[in-house]
Amino acid sequence: xxxxxxxxxxxxxxxxxxxxxxxxxxxxxLSDPVRLRIVSELASDGGELACSHFDLPxxxxxxxxxxxxxxxxxxxxxxxxxxxxxxALRREALDDLFPGLLDALLDAADRQALRLGE
Length: 118
Fold this sequence. Notes:
The chain is α+β, with helices and mostly antiparallel strands. It is built from five helices and four strands; from the N terminus they run E-H-H-E-H-E-E-H-H.
């Protein structure tokens, strides 16, 4: 007998529409080192990562705040799958709105980390 389980239901959180994403909101979201680190890891992975995947130097409530800022600015998309909250970079949307911005910022962050020995 084969037992099949239904896929965990997903529930998406509210996100800004493409027309609502503003450059100053994106820049604000990426101006924090913790949020920039999250975005860098998401960009490297290219897929969805659970919030618990990230080893951040902040409390759980502060981590939740950082993910909310990224979501509300339009930088990431978040969805619940079962009890896990998954985050993915909205790369296509950001590249359409601000061509080259994300790559330039991530490259600059990498160069700074090398320069500072991080």
